[in-house]
Amino acid sequence: MIVGTIMLATFLLGLLGANFHPVQAQLSRAAPEGPSGQATQPAAPVRSQMVVAAHPLAARAARQMLRDGGTAIDALVAAQMVLNLVEPQSSGIGGGGFLLYWDANRQQLITLDGRETAPAAAGPDRFLNDDGTPIRWPDAVGTGRSIGVPGIVPMLEAAHGEYGRIEWGQLFAPAIDLASNGFGVSPRLNLLLTGMGPDAFNEEGRNYFFDETGEARALGEVLKNPALALTFKQIAARGHIALGSGPIAKSIIAAASEPGVATININDLRDYETIARPPVCLTYRGYSICGMGPPSSGGMTVGAILGLLEASDLGDQPNAAAIHLIIEAEKLAYADRNRYMADSDFVDVPAGLLDPDYLAERALAIDPAQTMGRAEPGTPPELAAMPGRDHSGENPGTSHISIIDQFGNAASLTTTIESAFGSRRMVSGFLLNNELTDFSFRPVDDDGRPVANRVEGGKRPRSSMSPTMVFDADGKLWAVLGSPGGSRIILYVVKALVAMIDWNMEPQTASALGTFGSRNGPAELERGADMDRFASELEALGHEIARPSMTSGLHIIRVTPDGLLGGVDPRREGAAIGD
């Protein structure tokens, strides 16, 4: 069920103005279709509808639903189910996600929380050793204590009940067909399995992902998943109830069990609730940037970064001075994120974190001539109590889907099972998440203050997922975007927004642009020539430079006078296709 009234989101009209009207795209052009493992995008704008997803087979399944007269929600369900099969390392029905949905008919932006929850009996000592010290993350991820109650299917079913046009069961047909008849193993899936190795998985996962000798399924090998096909058929017939009762529920409970730990039980599965939350919106350069609120930290942190930059001139193309300013703003925003943001049903997240006066005061700490080093959290207005310091993080086992349909509706879904292959425990053909490792392992800090993102029964762990929509000064939908990438998701989305708004880049250029940023640590510059040119200038400003591999997966749709433009991240295997 959806808690609260979806219509609550009409408050957005007050934020963005009352002149919203549906997208009216122009110009027709079909998109080329590339093989798995090769990112593809339309050669020119498309007229009326577009899908950008992390695998061509998922994008094609979604487009078929659009061609059959479906909405963005119909297409989203089809894409998610196919991604579960062909990109199992990143998302699926064993996980959760956050959804932004633009209802063009009602002129409303809806945000739905399908984040996984801790079992009702979970306590703050869940990730502590007997001596009170935190257990190591690698020792937690593959255990039952890491598995949260899945939320993606209930959320998608709730959204479909409100906004879908095609019968629920039909949306599973592409995924059932592929699971039954097979699909080719992609380069990314083969590479990740090879690196992970068979011993990381439970027996069902080992038998599915590896051959009898322990070798990962070969590139291009036709892989079938009859167990998942059967699971899809049951969900198609019964909806999310199929996960909350019967044999699938029993398999989830058995796989999540862990001696001495309060793990998922049948009531946790049956009682899961999708929550309609108010969107988080902030104005930047005349655009309204809207995202997801807590327990996602994405919308508030992206908004804070842009608010801190509003008074700064970032130039008309990437430059070291602008990257320095962005990095410094990100340090300030991440300091506040880590201290204050968590599930707002359990903690008081200060609304003042996005107060313009507070952000203007925080921005005074940004010096164009030198780095501030590590930022400290501020003291925002409306602060009820100072929570403890939190050093929890996230791992990048996530995917993103952006869709605009022929009716002007749009969907931005970031979907996850947390780390690569989640808990590595497969049941009924799908992997269960390890989402609870996104909680702080330490319930209190060194000063004895409770950490906002501590484990509590029924609580949803903090996330950096940042599904985003942008509206122009006239209230028209301007862009739909998001990315996987763990705690760096916020950096990727900010980079794309600055690239499109300040540097006037098209979505494909913005997606491919070298990545940079900071999570209140070193200045992270993606490896490669794109960022090489800025490293020495940033070092001269005092930055400690790190050069990690920053595997974003930005999927963008831009609404232009000539139609819809897609951007698909070349770092992964996605496709942008439309009509």
Provide the descriptors you would attach to this structure in a database record:
Glutamine Phosphoribosylpyrophosphate, subunit 1, domain 1, disordered N terminus, 21 strands, alpha+beta, eight-stranded mixed β-sheet, Serum Albumin, Chain A, Domain 1, six-stranded antiparallel β-sheet, single chain, 579 residues
Provide a short characterization of the protein structure.
By secondary structure, the chain is α+β, with helices and mostly antiparallel strands. It contains 18 helices and 21 strands. Strands 1-7-4-3-11-10-2-21 form an 8-stranded mixed beta sheet. A 6-stranded antiparallel beta sheet has the order 8-9-14-15-19-20.
Topology:
Elements: E1 2-3, H1 12-16, E2 50-53, H2 56-67, H3 72-86, E3 96-103, E4 108-114, H4 137-141, H5 152-163, H6 173-181, E5 183-184, H7 187-196, H8 203-209, E6 222-223, H9 226-238, H10 241-244, H11 246-256, H12 266-270, E7 274-277, E8 280-284, E9 287-291, H13 298-309, H14 320-340, H15 356-363, E10 397-404, E11 410-418, E12 426-427, E13 430-431, E14 468-471, E15 477-481, H16 489-501, H17 507-512, E16 516-517, E17 523-525, H18 529-540, E18 545-546, E19 555-560, E20 563-568, E21 575-578
Parallel strand pairs: 1-7, 17-18
Antiparallel strand pairs: 2-10, 2-21, 3-4, 3-11, 4-7, 5-6, 8-9, 9-14, 10-11, 12-13, 14-15, 15-19, 16-17, 19-20
Helix pairs in contact: 2-3, 3-5, 3-6, 6-9, 13-14, 13-15, 13-16, 14-18
